[in-house]
Write a structure and sequence with these properties.
alpha/beta, 10-stranded mixed beta sheet, 6-stranded mixed beta sheet, about 15% strand, binds 1,4-dihydronicotinamide adenine dinucleotide
């Protein structure tokens, strides 16, 4: 007879299934057939449709209508019609709807959790304890932003009609992340859930109906990528918000390039999970369970790349393997399981294929001897070791329960490995040494960093990526800005299709004459690259005329090669400049202002040739004032600290973006240049600026000012020439992290198209003219926000 102790160890869990009868009743009440929710009413299911299944059993849950372009159009029209009245409500009135939404989610928590689990395959423990509470919290938190809108966002208004496309890994949560801020800010919404998991969004549409949300404010339509594309392409949508694959993110960037639609992208990741040799390894293993086996690893910010310090690697692997033996894979409705089903056969095959590729590339694959359900889309938790940093499985998002591991020796090597990815969504750092942890957190290129923790989320803390993980943030104040525009930048007309970008010639450009101008003669201005005056690679310059058509000088005709040199110079200094203290940057800006005052007469005289003496004087004087303003801002546009409801603080740090390409406007050649370049450098970015091509001779005075102001070489680079050609090279350059265009609509479209390669951040004026003389429009936080990106660092804090 076995002892009690032996019995204890050999005991198996009995099944503890959650009751699905309420959900089945709900599905039956809808005859297991769903249309779209448009203008406050359900449409009939007619025309094409698709089935949504329970991935754990293969059972069909319901039939869902597929929206075509005309359905999308009806939804957009309903949203447009509902917009004025919704915008006209007070923040408090909108807050009450969001509050009611949150209450109703809580009242139906159990039904929603079961529905989510049935449709997605995620464990009921997670949908009940994580997804649903976060959904409710998001609506409550944003009820608060609606309430405080006038107070906290003065001078801003809603964007308008918003099209939202969400993925299948967190159907309810992504719905909340998208809809709550959009409605709080006074937008109306057309949202499309993913085709694998449409049901919970429809249940939330029903909640919108129950709480009496005015019709048309929220429209939910179903379908696959085609329906998504129809939303993206609809001409009467003002903003697209997307969460999903980087591949589709690129398609959407391209599809919206020739429009003035605002865009935010929440894309993939390959987030490093960095473990130092002094980490508490047992906690680390629990962290890994939440990092990569949470939601079957179908998490954009999953800690999918384990980077472990060599000395403890084997020890950690042992611990991981024994923990993996205890992970329970099984029916998602079972309250005692850890790992549920993969959402769809397509995803299952993809995961399997990638693991096989990993093994072919030399990785060692290990899986525990856990009991697996006989049918359904279940994938064993998997550990890949001996992985080469350049291999497919180390670089590509697997989006499954597969942990990929590599080792490092020093903190510097850890940072290098961590950043050796095109993504930049999240990172985890495990160490008992606060110096090491925070030092690494500062250097990792990721929008979210968890110190001794993983996969924590809160409505008050922004979430979103660096690099090819997308741009824009969700949650917190920064998330609200994605759904607001400054009143002066409000779109007055429906989104129009922008003209085809053309490579234009500078005004007065004459190929023959230009070619004939021997380079190097007297009045020829040079390019400014890496803190040095540089001759253009082409050897050509172009004539610059004053406003009366008189030749005033020659400007160097920069080309692609010059841009590449300038980007390299900017790249080389950007990390160092970003680390210069804000106080130090402020000092340099003050010095620039001082030197502009010194050269006032000279600069005004030169500028007067283009804009007349009166404007020239004003541009200079305002320019000095603007320089002072950004010197002042340099150490005042700071981050914040959030207090999420757990034993953590979140440091929302405003970081420089890196290297910024700027296409400057023609209308205020000096002030426009300063208004864009200064906020960028004040925040620690390095810049490659293309000045107004008509007035490029002016730049010689500016670089003399920079030269004498202690500005490190390479922080500001100036390449004159054809803005359209240079802008295209800049926009396409992989070492440019953000591109700003404040020229015409064609230039806006061109830089958006060019940005697709590395998904750099794009900011343009959409061809709208800006009053550079009005500080309310042309100076301040609006500019500083575009010059920074927020990194949210979660740090253990308190009891
Ligand atoms: P996906 O990006 O194709 O789907 C996400 C959403 O976009 C769905 O609603 C889909 O209908 C829609 N969509 C698809 N094509 C579209 C188009 N051309 N225009 C507009 N909308 C479109 O992602 P998918 O195929 O479901 O998953 C593939 C991979 O993407 C995964 O293995 C994973 O690596 C990644 N992924 C990342 C997510 C994240 O949260 N970062 C979420 C889902 C997938």
């Amino acid at each position: 007879a076995s002892s009690i102790v032996e019995k204890f160890y050999s005991m198996e869990y009995g099944p503890a299934p959650e009751d699905a009868s309420e959900v089945n009743k709900w599905l039956d009440a809808h005859k297991r057939s769903f249309g779209h929710y448009i203008d406050g009413a359900w449409t009939q299911v007619s025309g094409s449709s698709f089935e949504t299944r329970n991935p754990a059993t293969g059972e069909v849950l319901a039939k869902i209508a597929t929206a075509d372009a005309s359905d999308v159009d009806r939804a957009v029209k309903a949203a447009r019609a509902a917009l004025p009245a919704w915008q006209a409500l007070t923040g408090h009135q909108r807050a009450r709807y969001l509050y009611a939404f949150a209450r109703q989610v809580q009242k139906h928590a159990r039904r929603l959790a079961v529905l989510e689990t049935l449709d997605n395959g995620k464990s009921i423990r997670e949908s009940r304890d994580i997804d649903i509470p976060l959904v409710a919290r998001h609506f409550y938190h944003h009820a608060g932003w609606a309430q405080l809108l006038d107070e906290e966002f003065p001078g801003y208004t809603s964007v308008g009609v918003v099209g939202q496309i969400i993925p299948w890994n967190f159907p309810l949560l992504m719905f909340a992340w998208k809809v709550a801020p959009a409605l709080a800010a006074g937008n109306t919404v057309v949202i499309k859930p993913a085709e694998f998991t449409p049901l919970s969004a429809l249940a939330l549409a029903e909640i919108a109906q129950e709480i009496g949300l005015p019709k048309g404010v929220l429209n939910v339509i179903n379908g696959d990528g085609k329906t998504g594309a129809a939303i993206v392409e609809h001409t009467d949508i003002d903003k697209i918000a997307f969460t999903g694959s980087t591949e589709v993110g690129r398609i959407i960037r391209k599809a919206t390039a020739k429009t003035s639609k605002k865009l935010s992208l929440e894309l993939g990741g390959k987030s490093p999970f960095i473990v130092f040799d002094d980490a508490d390894l047992d906690s680390t293993v629990e962290g890994l369970v939440d990092g990569i086996w949470f939601n079957q690893g179908q998490v954009c910010c999953a800690g999918s790349r384990l980077l472990v310090q060599e000395r403890v690697a084997e020890k950690l692997y042992d611990k991981i393997r024994s923990r993996m033996e205890t992970l329970r894979v099984g029916s998602p409705l079972d309250k005692a399981i850890d790992i549920g089903a993969i959402v769809d056969q397509i995803q299952y095959d993809r995961i399997k294929g990638l693991v096989e590729t990993g093994v072919k590339e030399g990785a060692t694959c290990w899986q525990p001897e856990v009991t697996m359900p006989e049918k359904g889309l279940f994938f064993k938790p998997t550990l890949l070791t001996n992985v080469h940093p350049a291999s497919t499985v180390a670089q590509e998002e697997i989006f499954g329960p597969v942990l990929v591991s590599m080792t490092f020796r020093t903190p510097a090597e850890a940072v290098e490995l961590a950043n050796n990815t095109t993504y930049g969504l999240a990172a985890c750092v495990w160490s008992e040494n606060i110096n090491v942890a925070l030092d690494v957190a500062a250097q990792v290129k990721a929008g979210v960093v968890w110190v001794n923790a993983t996969n924590l989320f809160d409505a008050a803390c922004g979430f979103g990526g660096y690099r090819e993980s997308g741009y824009g943030r969700e949650g917190g104040k920064e998330g609200m800005y994605e759904y607001l525009v400054p009143v002066h930048a409000e779109r007055k007309t429906a989104a129009k299709t922008l003209p085809e970008p053309v490579i234009d010639q500078p005004e007065g450009f004459d190929e023959e004459r230009s070619a004939a101008v021997e380079f190097g003669i007297d009045r020829t201005v040079k390019l400014y690259i890496g803190g040095k005056q540089a001759r253009p690679d082409s050897g050509y310059s172009y004539p610059v005329y004053d406003r009366n058509g008189q030749l005033v000088g020659e400007a160097p005709l920069g080309n692609r090669k010059d841009i590449r040199n300038a980007v390299e110079a900017a790249r080389n200094i950007s990390a160092k400049w970003a680390k210069t203290t804000a106080h130090g940057r402020a000092q340099i800006l003050y010095y620039i202002a001082e030197n502009m005052v010194q050269r006032r007469a000279e600069i005004v005289a030169k500028l007067a040739a283009f804009v007349g003496p009166e404007q020239a004087a004003i541009e200079l004087d305002y320019g000095v004032e603007r320089t002072f303003a950004y010197a002042a801002w340099a150490d005042k546009f700071e981050g914040s600290v959030h207090n999420p409801p757990m034993r953590m603080v979140t440091l929302a740090m405003k970081e420089a973006i890196g290297t910024v390409g700027i296409l400057c406007p023609d209308d205020a050649p000096l002030l426009g240049f300063l208004s864009l370049v200064l906020p960028a450098i004040a925040m620690g970015n390095a810049v490659v600026a293309v000045p107004s091509e008509r007035c490029a001779t002016l730049m010689s005075d500016l670089y003399q000012v920079f030269d004498t102001s202690d500005l490190p070489g390479g922080v500001v680079n100036i390449v004159a020439g054809k803005a359209s050609e240079l802008g295209k090279t800049l926009a396409e350059h992989d070492d440019i992290d953000a591109i700003w265009s404040f020229r015409d609509e064609a230039a806006s479209a061109m830089v958006k198209l060019g940005s697709i390669g590395n998904l750099k951040q794009v900011w343009t004026n959409e061809g709208r003219s800006i009053d550079w003389f009005d500080p309310a429009q042309a100076e301040g936080r609006y500019f500083l926000r575009h010059a920074t990106q927020i990194k949210n660092i979660w740090v253990p804090y308190g009891e």
